[in-house]
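Anyone opening a protein record will find just a pair of labelled lines. The record below illustrates this layout.
***
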Amino acid sequence: MHPVFSIRALCLGLGLALAGPAWAGPWSAALEAAWRRDPQALALEAGDRLDLARHDQARRLLAEPPELEARQWRDREGRGGAEETELDLSLSLRWPGERRAALSLAEAEAYARAAQLQARRLELAGELREAAAELLAARAEEGLAVQRRALADALAADIAAQVKAGEKPETERMLALGEALAARRAALDAASRRRRAEGEWAARIGAELAVPEAAETPAEAAEADAHPAWRALAAERQRLLAERQAAQADAREAPSLALGARRERAEAGGPSDTALSLGFSIPLSERVEQGSRRAELDQGLAEVEARLAQTRIRLQTERHQAESDLDTARALLPLAAEQAELARRQRAEARRALDLGELSLLDYTRLDAQAAEAERGAVLARLAEARAVARLNQSYGILP
């Protein structure tokens, strides 16, 4: 076992086994900013020192630090009388295989934390993807609402001028004004939703970082075993197996070796006698708590095995759902664009008919609302496709 042990090396090895990131630049900066604000992420990173301490402890040759005890006796005559000195050294040894099992456990614990770190990083990426998608959708809807408000205000001004000139009745001015007021209210509501989405984004990464607007590209599908969520559970299972092996190697109290030296002098000026002693202590039975410890580890292993099976099914289901959602979004995109283009032409024709008196204002407002909804659907369809790609990459375990 190499004496240098670093969790960062394990993280690097685990990260290289994962698929590469789909994006760089703004997304990596946003993810890093969110990482520095996440308590769970910071706690996982702070465990590096704990891993180093565990490994150093596992590498020790002795189960406990050695103990040295010294004793000395003298009679009442002072320096010239009888004298006795004893030195005892106690060494707490390790069972055969215990050190190797402890080192395996230390590595398994460090690798499990590295896997949890990667899984948490992917969770944060998913949260950022959703927050970014919500913010981009809110901004797009606000832009559409502002555009619709401008059109409604212009129409209300035109109708008011025509009413003043006696070309249209007062009821149409009131109808146009009502549409303008409704459009203003919709714009205010859209602005409120946009500010709320911006606040949520800023709370995650900070207001100084903009939302990446470039669309992701679909990544290649990877095996479910390469997904960080599954790897974290697999690493936890390996940690429990290593802990059970370490518990088996450390089932009994540590044997001890005692070395002693004794030096005696019967009288002042007399010869000194020296004696050496060697003692060895071996516990014959297991620790009292060993049975319950094994039962707890077996219970934890059974739970992790069940979670692994469930996670595999969940990841496969999420992957298939994401692939299906992306196919649906791509199929709806040209339909929404065509519908929006047709609605825009209908609105232009309806406005010409309205100006010529061939169409009532009530019919025009109905066609205008349909055109606005079609334009909104086209914009949201483009955003839905981008969101479906991001969710597909998330289901593959790909970081942005």
